[in-house]
Amino acid sequence: MKDIIAGFREIIQDLLVPELRSIKTELQHHSKQFEQIEKRFDHIDKQFEQIDRRFEQVFKELEDLKLGQKEILSKLDIDKRLTRLETIVEKSGLVTGGNIIREKESKYLKK
Fold first, then answer.
1. Is the pTM of this model over 0.70?
2. Considering the domain boundaries, does residue 70 fall inside one?
3. Inter-residue contact 75 to 109 (CB < 8 Å)
């Protein structure tokens, strides 16, 4: 009976050991591939961080441009109001040569 069990064990080992070695080799190969993939992901993460910083910079520049645009538009609005005021003053006949107001105001607009 012991011979049968020993023989059976030997047959199973002969069949399984090469298969187990093959599986072990395959797992080692996959482990190396996973390490390479992880390195690639790390590299991609760094690239995304750079892209994020660039986007933040672009958005900050856009915000600065937006503020500059608001300032310009507000100055244009003042210019329009001043032109309207000059027209009203000229039509009323209170002051002749409506550029007097504009010359004084333009000093403030340049600041």
1. no
2. yes
3. yes
Q: How many domains does the chain contain in total?
A: 1
If you write DSSP's letter for every residue of 15-67 in order, what string do you get? HHHHHHHHHHHHHHHHHHHHHHHHHHHHHHHHHHHHHHHHHHHHHHHHHHHHH
pLDDT tens, residue by residue, 61-79: 999 999 988 888 788 778 8
Instruction: Indicate the length of the chain as a whole number.
Output: 111
Quick check: is 23 in a domain? yes
Distance separating alpha carbons of residues 50 and 39, to the nearest angstrom: 17
Encode pLDDT of 2-23 as tens digits. Answer: 888 888 888 888 888 888 899 9
**Residue carrying structure tokens 């310009």:** 72
